[in-house]
Design goal:
Blueprint lengths: L17 E4 L30 H26 L8 H13 L12 H14 L6 H14 L16 H13 L3 H4 L4 H11 L16 H13 L5 H4 L2 H6 L18 H14 L7 H9 L21 H4 L3 H12 L13 H11 L17 H15 E4 L2 E4 L20 H12 L17
Parallel strand pairs: 1-3
Antiparallel strand pairs: 2-3
This protein binds zinc ion.
Length: 444
């Protein structure tokens, strides 16, 4: 990996990247793919064998088609109708940071996640976060930190790798020392080392099972906060590589079905470990490109499943990572104008079908908005708009220029300036002194 872009594990200096605008399809920003003649030909064919899955798929496509017809009418009035409704989304997000409906009580053990989903969405929409809000979020996340390291899903809850990842990301988004200094790095590293197993995998919390999410969460926070060390990553790359399935994507553990979320976790982990060579790139690419749906334009999470906007990032975010791996071995396949997936189709899906009328983004037409899908739909849109190639960010913004989002870092999924500032800050601190465990003995 290049050492200038945040992908490498080694200490690095960040440089400004130059920007250029590019339209890789040779079409204008106002061209709309789904309004072309015979677009219906892209619909799924069941070959005369109707199944429960094909019925669900047809229902989704009918909803998509209705939206396309509305768009066709709107476009006659306003050719620039593919608008990202930023103000409405920001209103929804800022309201959530102040007050949540009682229906979200079910997410009581995911409260750092709610902070992260909202803060990242606000940041990606290029809105500043007020000092008052920062201060409240810092106070709250601080109360979620466990005295023995890591963060729980709420104050007083057991530490768990998933909310630890969310809390660290949220604090990095705030981009200030007060936020960074909440993190007890010494205890965090001890926590991570306690969760590591001899085979290189990570438990999600003490006494739990292991899966590939644990690996990604552990490595991401270790890199961001600069507590990365050899003891933490021993055998991990090999364990992660065993999660690649015959299909090409990654399962949660070896021999499980390939899935978008696990695939992102596996690939991002291997990129952080600089061990991308351990997996079959072509098989992964084939699986990923086939997860982008032809008619809807968005991604599905698994083979034969329905489109869902959150996979715009979980699957879409894999492409910049894989592009970098392939660039070493397949320079012809990986040019500046070849993004490996159909970024116009993905932008159309998100802009036309996933914006809720009063702000927030949805999974697919017919679903309700929520903060999780708002975060990952916007993150996927950012991935489809920006592409980092040889130290240049190449942009392709569908619709008006104002639709442009900030560029999200494809490993950590916080915006690049936040990742850079946090890594630079923590690299300036001494490495925490920890008692390394009785090496390589599993606690379970
Ligand atoms: Zn989803």
């Amino acid at each position: 990996m290049d050492s200038c872009d945040g992908f490498s594990a080694k200490k690095r200096t960040y440089k400004e990247v130059s920007c250029q605008h590019n339209d890789p399809n040779g079409d204008s920003q106002t061209f709309i793919r789904c309004l072309t003649q015979d677009f219906d030909d892209q619909r799924c064919q069941d070959d005369g064998f109707e199944t429960a899955t094909s019925i669900d798929q047809a229902e989704v496509e009918d909803n998509i088609k209705r939206n396309i017809e509305v768009l066709r009418c709107n476009r006659e009035i306003d050719p620039q109708c593919l608008i990202m409704h930023k103000e409405l989304h920001l209103k929804y997000l800022k309201k959530g940071l102040q007050n949540l409906p009682s229906s979200l009580e079910i997410l009581d053990c995911s409260r750092p996640w709610l902070c992260y989903w909202m803060l990242h969405s606000i940041e990606i929409l290029k809105e500043d976060i007020s000092e008052e809000t920062k201060s409240k979020v810092i106070g709250f996340l601080s109360s979620c930190q466990h005295p023995d390291g890591g963060f729980g899903g709420g104050p007083g809850q057991e530490a768990h790798l998933a909310p630890t990842y969310a809390a660290v990301n949220a604090l990095c988004i705030l981009r200030c020392e007060e936020a960074y200094n909440v993190i007890n790095r010494e205890k965090l590293l001890e926590f991570l080392l306690r969760l590591r197993k001899i085979d290189g995998s990570f438990k999600l919390h003490e006494g739990s099972e292991t899966d590939i999410r644990g690996v990604y969460c552990a490595l991401s926070v270790a890199m961001l906060t600069s507590v990365w060390c050899d003891e933490l990553i021993k055998n991990t790359a090999h364990w992660v590589s065993r999660c690649q399935t015959y299909e090409g994507g990654f399962g949660g553990v070896p021999d499980m079905e390939a899935h978008g979320g696990y695939t992102f976790c596996g690939l991002a982990s291997l990129v952080l470990l600089q061990e991308g060579k351990l997996i079959n790139h072509h098989r992964l690419l084939r699986w990923l490109v086939n997860r982008q749906t032809k008619f809807e334009g968005g991604f599905q999470g698994r083979t034969n499943k329905l489109v869902d906007s959150c996979y715009s990032f979980w699957q879409g975010g894999c492409f910049p990572l894989l592009h970098r791996l392939l660039a070493k071995t397949e320079p012809d396949l990986t040019t500046c104008s070849n993004w490996l997936f159909h970024q116009r189709a993905l932008q159309e899906y998100l802009l036309i079908h996933c914006q809720a009328p009063h702000g927030g983004l949805i999974d697919k037409p017919g679903k309700s908005k929520d903060y999780y899908h708002t975060c990952y739909a916007l993150s996927g849109l950012s991935v489809a708009q920006h592409f980092n190639y040889k130290r240049k960010v190449v942009d392709f913004i569908l619709g008006p220029d104002d639709n442009e989002l900030l560029y999200t870092h494809p490993i950590y999924n916080i915006c690049v300036p936040s990742a850079v500032k946090a890594i630079n800050y923590f690299q300036g601190l001494p490495f925490p002194k920890v008692q390394l465990a009785k090496d390589d003995t599993d606690s379970d």
